[in-house]
């Protein structure tokens, strides 16, 4: 019998907890378009590096660095759930605290997720104007560490 995976489009949640936004109350982020890439996690550095030696041998160095960046492709909604608005605010006030981002997704009826800590805004365009469509803002956050549900 074949294995089949069922994923309902858009069945994921991004929650931000940041003491400088909304008094630290958890904020569920909106503004994700149904079609296209919505979120991408990119680790800061490779977890393994191979050094080739002149005699043909190698040395492999590994680490457990869990820092990186999250890119959210969102549309400005102008509500409290607007990541563009949140990112612009945090850039303006000069975030020296960091927050927590939790992402969960439902696949085959089971929910799993990742928690990202020490999150700060890396970049967010100030303005994008686009005709006959809502523009996509690539809002990038740096994180100090992530923990998948399997490790909590």
Folded structure, characterized:
With 152 residues, the chain is mainly beta. Helices cover 7% and strands 42% of the residues. It is built from one helix and ten strands; from the N terminus they run ββββββαββββ. Strands 1, 2, 3, 6, 7, 8, 9 and 10 form an eight-stranded antiparallel β-sheet that branches. A hairpin with a 2-residue loop joins strand 7 (99-107) and strand 8 (110-123). The radius of gyration is 18 Å and the shape is globular. The chain starts with 11 loop residues before the first strand and ends with a strand. The model has no long low-confidence stretch (mean pLDDT 93).
Short description:
With 152 residues, this protein is mainly β.
User: Can you give the mean pLDDT?
Assistant: 93
Structural class per helix/strand content? mainly beta
Distance between the termini: 33 Å
The backbone outline, from C-alpha atoms, is: globular
Number of helices: 1
Largest sheet: 8 strands, antiparallel
The tally of beta strands, per DSSP, is 10
Low-confidence stretches: none
Measured by DSSP, the beta-strand proportion falls in 35-45%
Radius of gyration: 18 Å
Helix % is under 10%
- Compressed to H and E, one letter per element, the order equals EEEEEEHEEEE
């Amino acid at each position: 019998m074949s294995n089949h995976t069922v994923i309902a489009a858009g069945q994921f949640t991004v929650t931000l907890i940041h003491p400088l936004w909304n008094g630290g109350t958890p904020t569920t982020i909106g503004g994700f378009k149904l079609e296209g890439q919505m979120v991408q996690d990119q680790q800061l550095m490779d977890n393994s590096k191979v050094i080739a030696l002149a005699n043909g041998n190698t040395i492999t160095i590994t680490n457990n660095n869990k820092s990186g960046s999250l890119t959210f492709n969102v549309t400005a909604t102008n509500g409290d759930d607007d990541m563009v608005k949140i990112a612009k605010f945090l850039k303006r006030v000069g975030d020296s605290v960091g927050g927590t981002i939790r992402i969960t997704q439902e696949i085959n009826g089971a929910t799993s997720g990742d928690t990202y800590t020490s999150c700060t805004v890396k970049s967010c365009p100030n303005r994008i104007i686009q005709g006959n469509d809502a523009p996509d803002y690539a809002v990038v956050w740096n994180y100090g560490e992530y923990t998948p549900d399997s490790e909590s």
